[in-house]
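User: Hey, quick favor. My workstation is busy. Could you predict this chain's structure for me?
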Amino acid sequence: MLLLSSRGLRNALRRFARNERGSVIVLFAMSLVAMVGMVALSSDLGRQMRMDSELQEMADAAALAAAKELDTKAGSFQRAIDEVAKLNNNSIFAENGVQVAQLIFAAEYDELVTSPIETITLPGGIPTALAADQARASWVQAVTTQGSATTFFAGVVGGPQQMRARGRATAGIGFVACAIQPMFICNPDESTNFAPARGELFLFKAKEPATGGGGNYFYPGDFGLLDPPGLNSSGANLIKENLASESPPLCYINSLSVRTGQAAGPVDDGINVRFDMFGGSSPNHPPAPNVIKGKLPKNNNSCPNNYDPGVPVPKDSCFYSGTCAAYGPMRKGTADWGTTPEATAYWNEHHDGRLPTDFVNASGKHYGQPGYTRFDLYLNELGITDVTQTPNPPPLPTGATPSAEDPAPTCKPAGSPSRRIIYTAVINCAEYGVTGNSQPPMSSVSMAKWFVTHPASGGEVWVEFIEMLTPASDNDKLKAIVQLYPNPQD
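Assistant: No problem, here it is.
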C-alpha cells in the first residue's frame, strides 16, 4: 500500500480544494430547491390575489346592480335581490364555490354599519322592511360568502393549508336634477315619502316665522327658493329669469343652497309670464297657449297691467270653506274641484254652459270622473291630451257666446303646452336642518312635477300635483347616478 507522506497529503488536499469540477451540480441542486419553492409560493400568492379580485368583482357587480333599484319606489329591496340573482356567481379560483351572501340597505352611508334599514341573507331572503323605509334607502352593501382554495407550497413549509377571501362592496345612488325651477318645499310629513294624489291642489306660501329653533330654519310645509348651483345668493332679476324659464340652465347634485329672505315680487313676475301677464320688468319668456286665469283686462288693453275679476279654473272645495289640510303655511286640497259650484260657473263662462262631454284625458277618464284633473282640462281646451302634441283648440258649439276672457295669449306669441308645468325639490327640512344659505349633504333629491292653476300673488303659488319625477322621464330632468364607494368598515 502506498502511503502518503504528510507533505503529500497536504498537497493532495490543496489540489482537491482548488478543483471546481462538479460544483455547479451542487449549486444547481441547492438553487433548484429554492426556485421550486419560490415558484410554488408565487403560485399560491397569485391564486390568492386572483381569488381576492374575483370575489371583489362579484361584490362590486352585486352592489351596483342593487343600488340601481333604490329609486324610492315600492318593492325596491325585492327588485334589488332579483337583479343580484341574475349575476354570474361562478368562481374559477375558489374551490368551495361562492355567492353573494348578504345585502345591507341603509338611508345614510355610515348607517350601513351603525343602523341599517335591513340586512337580507341570500339566497332566499325576503324583505320585511316597511315600504316607507325601503323608499328611504340610497345605500347598499353586498357581501359574498368566504371563498377558499388549497395551497400548493405554504402548507408544506408549515404555512396555512387553505387560502381564504371574501368580497365586500358599497354602492350608493344619487340624483342630478337639471333644467328645473329653483324652488323647493319642505316635505309636510317627513315620516313618509311625499306622494300626493294626482289632481290635488296645493297652495305654497312663504315660510312662517319659526315657533322654536330660530327664524332661519325651514320646517315641514314651508316653501322657498334655491340659489343657483355654486352661488349663495340670487338677486331679483336672476330669480325671475329662472322661474320664468321652462328649462333653466341649472343642475342640482345632492346639495342645495337655500335662499334667505322672501322675494314675493320676483316670484309673481317669474310665474305669471305663463299667464301672459307681463309687468315692466317681467322676463322675456313666452306665455302658455292657454292662459285662462280668471282675470279680465281693463280698457280692452291687449297687454294690460290691471285686471278686473273673471272666472278662474275652480279650486278644491276646502279652499272655499277654509277647511283644507294645513302643513305649516302649506294648504292641500282633495281634488274635488269638479263638483263645486265654481265649476258650474266656469262652464257657464268659458263653455257657454255646455259641459264638454268629449273632454277625455290620456287615460280615458272623462270630465267628472275620478282621475280627471285641471291639467287634463287645460290640455283638452287646447284640443290635445299630451303636452308634446300640437294645440288645436276645438271651436265653441254653433251659437255659443264666447267668454269675456280670451283663452289665447295676446301680449306675446304662445310657447309650448308645457309652459304651465313647473318642478320643485322636496326636502326633509327638519331632518337635514335646512337654513338659509345652508348646503346640507343630501343622499337624494326628490322632485315633484306640478301644473300651475292660477297666477301667483304675493309670492303665493297655486299648483296641482301631477307626479313625482323619475329618472329618464321628462327629457331626463332627473338623472340617477350609481357608483361604488369605499366600505365604511375600512
